[in-house]
Write a structure and sequence with these properties.
The chain has about 290 residues and is α/β, with parallel strands linked by helices. The chain is about 35% helix and about 15% strand. The longest helix has 16 residues. Bound molecules: manganese (II) ion (MN).
């Protein structure tokens, strides 16, 4: 049983569409804490990190919200650094830029491998990004590439090594990101791999690839799920993970007993249907934290 430390980061400054700042509330309303307590875990809810509202922080910078994003991520990293070493931090986004802070924080507790479960690679830099939205950049930032105001969150050093990152569920990758995945040698499993090999086989190889790190962080973007299943996401892409594929991945990760922290990001209640997407993400967290069918 784990000491689960919840931290909300109600931020939509990295996204192109507004509303994912309400994702943390939606996940709490979907009975996240109660569900995990029922499994026997102890919940420590640290509330939400302060995030400046978009209207108050927009600047003429090419990345108009970069200072506010950096500040919220810095706060996230600092709080996480102070969690006990055996804590299981669970971060409630917010858009995916929050992972710049969450992973900078958990990395202070040991070398961290990351399973990036996402339709997108989030590997753009300001030079390559078609949109300029920071939620498309967190993996690049954590590897040490991009705007220095972001790469230095939680310390100057890169927080991740390319060999410690695995993508799962990719299906919308920009040309420059494709080049960067190849150049850096990042392990990546696309939806095509999952279609051809099955999720069990892919999950097994992903987990094996990340066997060498002290910690294992799962960064779960709601848009990895098929939009028919989870419509309440900022950037829906057809052809995503089905219900049982996603659960089996979580169950297999749980069985390894190696996962030490989790992000749940990109739930957009404005686009959702009766909080369905948040409820599915709570189910995912439960499966990752030990919920079994039998
Ligand atoms: Mn993402």
């Amino acid at each position: 049983m784990r000491n689960v430390h919840l931290l909300g980061i109600p931020m939509d400054l990295g996204a192109g569409r507004r509303g994912v700042d309400m994702g943390a509330s939606a996940l709490r309303l979907a009975r996240l804490a109660r569900t995990l307590e029922t499994l026997g875990h102890t919940i420590h809810d640290h509330g939400n990190v302060e995030v400046a509202p978009a209207e108050a922080t927009r600047s003429p910078d090419p990345l108009p919200y970069v200072d506010a994003i950096a500040k919220a991520c810095e706060r996230t990293a600092a709080l996480t650094r102070d969690f006990p070493n055996d804590a299981f931090p669970l971060f409630l986004g917010g858009d995916h830029a929050i992972s710049i802070g969450s992973i900078a924080g958990v990395h202070q507790h040991g070398r961290t491998g990351v399973l990036w479960v996402d339709a997108h690679a989030d590997l753009n830099t300001p030079a390559t990004s078609p949109s300029g939205n920071v939620h498309g950049m967190p993996v690049a930032v954590l590897l040490g590439h991009g705007d220095p105001r972001l790469t230095r969150v939680g310390g100057e050093e890169p927080k991740l090594r390319p060999e410690d990152v695995v993508y799962l569920g990719l299906r919308a990758v920009d040309p420059d990101e494709r080049t960067m995945i190849r150049d850096l040698g990042i392990k990546a499993f696309t939806m095509t791999d999952i279609d051809q090999r099955g999720i069990a086989d892919v999950a097994t190889e992903a987990i094996e690839h990340l066997a060498g790190t002290d910690r294992l962080h799962v960064s779960f973007d709601a848009d990895v799920l098929d939009p028919d299943l989870a419509p309440g996401v900022g950037t829906p892409v057809p052809g995503g993970l089905r219900y049982r594929e996603a659960h089996l991945l979580m169950e297999m990760l749980s069985d390894t007993q190696r996962v030490t922290s989790l992000d749940l990001v990109e739930v957009n209640p404005i686009l959702d249907l009766r909080n369905r997407s948040a409820e599915i993400l709570v189910e995912m967290a439960a499966s990752l934290l030990g919920k079994k069918i039998l």
